[in-house]
Amino acid sequence: MIFRQLFEPLSSTYTYLLGCEETGLAVLIDPVIASLDRDLREVQRLGLQLAYSIETHIHADHITAALELKRKAGSKIAAPAAEGVLCADVNLEEGKPLQVGGIVLNPLHTPGHTAGHCAYALNDRVFTGDALLIEGCGRTDFQQGDAQALYWSVHKKLFSLSDDILVYPAHDYKDRHVSTIAQEKKRNPRLGKNKTLDEFRAIMADLNLPYPKFIDYAVPGNKQCGVCPADLPENLGKYCKQMTESPQG
Which SMART domains did the record assign (predicted)? Predict the structure, then answer.
């Protein structure tokens, strides 16, 4: 399998490029519109054909590139069924793998950050979206977030995977690239170290995080599979422009 971890620095988002070496088919997990050109160049450079863009959830901090990828590369849009993305070509559900060439992604419904959030298991790794970050987790205070649901999503779905499974999150803010299930069980200050549900609820309730500055534009735009709003304020315009620097991880 061809694998690339790509980083968009404005929202600290990881996009994952997976390619089947036998068929040349590829998918992008959580592509960002600001890195559209970079991702298309990488797909072309590797001689791949983009079959799907895949969302872990409706994002609140960036606009997805799904719609533009469909227009420019002919790829289909796949999103968790429980997120209710009406423009998606494929609605992903737990127990129904998505196969692209030799790549078989197994959706895991992991609500809590959002109600319809999905992680995707693939052989020796899992793409955890915002449900489980490296020594952290996504917020639970908007988009039908639920701390109890997230606790059980992580403990019953993700922490039940083998300890040596690699954890690839949707974001990291400290220049980290990958973890493992064992490491998160041991070191995650919110969800690991045998934290109880009550302890986790208290941690999440006490975060006092600011209101996300892009959420009022990102959520409606992503419900349309990646539409940049016409009324985007000038100070937020960079979220829909191509980045001058968008490195690979």
Answer: Lactamase_B
**pTM above the 0.90 mark?**
yes
C-alpha 178 chain-centroid distance: 14
What is the distance between the alpha carbons of residues 125 and 136, in angstroms, rounded to a whole number? 18
Q: Is CATH 3.20.20.10 correct for 2-208?
A: no
Contact 5, 31 (CB under 8 A): no
Task: State the first-to-last Cα distance of the chain, in angstroms, to the nearest integer.
Answer: 17
Q: Which helix (H) or strand (E) holds 151?
A: helix 147-152
Asked if 55 and 64 count as a contact pair (C-beta separation under 8 A), the reply is yes
> H or E element: which one contains 125?
strand 125-129
pLDDT, one tens digit per residue, over 176-218 is: 999 999 999 999 999 999 999 999 999 999 999 999 999 999 9
Please tell me the distance from the alpha carbon of residue 49 to that of residue 96, in angstroms, as a whole number: 23
Give CA–CA dist 95/75, Å, rounded: 23
- Residue predicted with more confidence, 245 or 247: 247
Three-state DSSP state, 110 = coil
How far is it, in rounded angstroms, from Cα 61 to Cα 148? 23
